[in-house]
């Protein structure tokens, strides 16, 4: 391939120069950043070429790390050959790792450091690359892609202007991070595409490389081993090395290398075991620990394995000890009436106590030998700990026994279909000692999901299709849900709500996130299964729907499915992420901005901003967002540049934009590992009780924001999707603050509304003042059992129930 010379330094960069802009160019002139000064020469203008830029690790304030070659730009719509005046600001940082470009906010950078000096293995595969002809600008709809043959070639079929266009591609470069795939001469189309090397099987990589290198040369064969090691594919590296040792037994140092690889593989296995443990998959972890290889593994690693096994053995002992001590102390209670009340609780503990809830017994086990406590007090510690959670145990058995009755009555209330049934349960709850709002909130937080699921599993264990009442336009919605391996209702699980695009199905979305089912492993093998996530895929589209319509029906199909799921499944409502592909990504973007209080983050993949998304930009402040698209997807970055610029250049946004090099309108499963790493960040947890709220609304159903509910939005500020007038309508802006001294202020243009209250916001033992538009609301706010129960029944959030509400205007 002919290489062009860099006009600044005179060195031939050509295709070796990794472009970091969203346009085709071999260089980009960029301005130094205050964060990056120590990495560049002391010049005002720096030319970004592959040969003159050191790879860098950027750590964001969120904790996310991105590594690659870096540059800056002022806007995603900026012309890379004319990036602006020398003194213009450059608030956007680009990080290019050869596979993709990651765009982040300069203001969100916490630290910048040079990458450790390593020489990544870079294997060139000779191919008859197209050097002349038309350059692929945009990739049309993908019709099919064949598998790579042994020479690293395949046929990529897409829809062109005159029908199907078949492009012969060939692998030309393989690195630990990316694999370069280029158009070959036969087609006459110039195309440079990058795939994640991690997405290619060992069979493909090793076969293609062996066709390019000499199998008789051990040094060439070692390059394959090094490639896998640098890609952290230690198992593949060891397989290659074992074959190398078999073919070249006379090379003594290979055996020592194999021993070192086994150590690395053992460490990798241990990290996988720890990840599965943290995901709550204890049966699998215990089996893996028991089968952990010992031959040739370092003593420190084996000691860690033995310590983990000992921890599990200790938990088993604690479980058995808990039940034995509980039975022993119940037997010592003289009052037969009290004993009768406790026996059903003991039976429940025998049936349901497990490793996920064993911490609730900590106070009971710690004080089981305390001579100062009577048997009934010790039993109270066990019962109340089981019902209220770790650290909340009490030693009054009468109250503890009443808590059991209260919890059972709460379950009846939440399942009741008729108002009079709920009223009866409410009166019983109020009559019991454990029926106070404080006890109720803790009981609800620690109880199993209240609504039982009677549906049968589909073909995959833990995979269900459920239905939920809909809205007028669609009386019933359905959704699919996949539970993680070893799901247990006493553990809270993070969740992904995923929306399919046109031409795909909810089941395919489940497969994308959780992986396909393996008969050999008896589980799905994707990242959601591995990391312990629930996946929900609503059937949100109408039949033959080809684009997102921004309607109430679409919003309801997603929100109702989520609400139904959290009433049936133990979902951590502070860790629910909304995602979608293509027009499902459009929906995720709009629904995320319209209801930002529901999500820990939003992940639109190959999505486009339109209509209300432009109006609701401010609702994205504080909402983590992660966008993924392709460089050749019809100008995806340019089309969405104005909206993404607002996030990347504005204040209080947490946004990441990823653009894959040479790629079109795809699903981008290459990014799934980084998506889960992003979701796992502790900074990406929903903060449900913000001290300040600012929100925009222009559809009647976009009216609930954290602890603030709006109604009667002025007609002049309402634009329904069917009207198509949102460009000329200004949404209403609502602001609210939690102040000192139990005061809350609201500035709202809606005709009415509700301020919902909880102990995280106010002190119910002190007077509470709510001011709306400068006027104090006269109603006294007190903790109310009915309000609490109705809130849990209607919203489904058992982690953050509201205890009271104040409505305006006064009624």
Structural class, please? alpha+beta
- Summed up, the domain count is 5
- Could you tell me the mean pLDDT? 91
Rg computed from alpha carbons, rounded to a whole number of angstroms: 30 Å
Written account of the structure:
The protein is of the alpha+beta class. The chain has five domains: 14-114, no CATH class; 136-275, no CATH class; 317-446, no CATH class; 463-680, Alpha/Beta hydrolase fold, catalytic domain (Rossmann fold); 692-808, no CATH class. Strand 22, helix 16 and strand 23 form a beta-alpha-beta unit. It is globular, with a radius of gyration of 30 Å.
Architecture blueprint of SSEs:
Elements: E1 28-31, E2 45-48, E3 56-60, E4 65-73, E5 92-96, E6 100-105, E7 109-114, E8 123-124, E9 134-135, E10 142-145, E11 153-160, E12 163-174, E13 178-183, E14 189-190, E15 192-196, H1 202-212, H2 218-230, H3 234-247, H4 253-278, H5 282-290, H6 299-331, H7 336-352, H8 362-367, H9 375-388, H10 397-415, H11 419-431, H12 437-446, E16 463-471, E17 474-482, E18 493-499, H13 506-514, E19 517-518, E20 523-524, H14 527-531, E21 534-538, H15 552-568, E22 571-581, H16 583-594, E23 601-605, H17 612-615, E24 625-630, H18 636-639, H19 641-649, E25 655-660, H20 672-680, E26 692-697, E27 704-705, E28 708-711, E29 732-739, E30 743-747, E31 752-757, E32 769-772, E33 775-776, H21 785-795, E34 804-808
Parallel strand pairs: 9-14, 18-21, 18-22, 22-23, 23-24, 24-25, 30-32
Antiparallel strand pairs: 1-2, 3-4, 3-7, 4-5, 5-6, 6-25, 8-12, 10-11, 11-12, 12-13, 13-15, 16-17, 17-21, 19-20, 26-29, 27-28, 28-31, 29-30, 31-34, 32-33
Helix pairs in contact: 2-3, 3-4, 4-5, 6-7, 6-9, 7-10, 9-10, 10-11, 10-12, 10-21
